[in-house]
Amino acid sequence: MYEFLSYLFARNPDVDFMTYLRSDELVAKLEAFDELLGQENDAAEVRSSIRKLISAHLSLREPASDGDTRLQEEYARLFRGIKKGYGPPPPYESVYRSDIVMSEATSDVLTRYREEGLEVRGGEPPDYIAFELAFMSHLRKMEDEACRKGDAKSADRLASSADGFLSDHILGWVPQFCNEVLDYGSAFYGAVAGLTKNWLEFEAGRAKQRRSASGSSIRGR
Questions:
Q1: pLDDT digits (tens, 9 = 90+) for 45-60
Q2: What is the CATH number of the domain that holds 119?
């Protein structure tokens, strides 16, 4: 899910992106997420958000001469921080947590990327929303791979790193940003923001369960 959300935030809606948004591939991916989450007892809000995004996606297939232009304008307004009052501040952690770009939070984010052997490429700061979500995707994928290999020690370290980054960084500002996007009433990007917010709440709940299980295990020794 993190990789998918990162992609939606990062991509300016050009011709190729609009073709993807109108494709059956997007619906199939969302339906696969929904089916997978059907096995989770506490994923009702995430699944509801997935269905809202599917509905918003289907509306993009309706004939509309200004559909592409409208989505491009919404992307610029919601994600580029063009000017105060026109849209939300740009989606950088430092802006939401300290009102400046490249703060101490940014430095810590960059340090955590480098600890995992990753470097930032492109014109955005390290604490750009798409980069932070992509980093979570990387950690979760590596955790899953370690589990498949039976490497419990590495899996535990990666889970701890992901849960820590979620708590220390993402949860401290991304839900607020998503709320601001929702306030602007974009059907598509509002659905993306709603799914992001509910997914992070779901992930935070799972991280809390892991901490509780770990604490119980320690106390039982």
A1: 999 999 999 988 888 7
A2: 1.10.3480.10
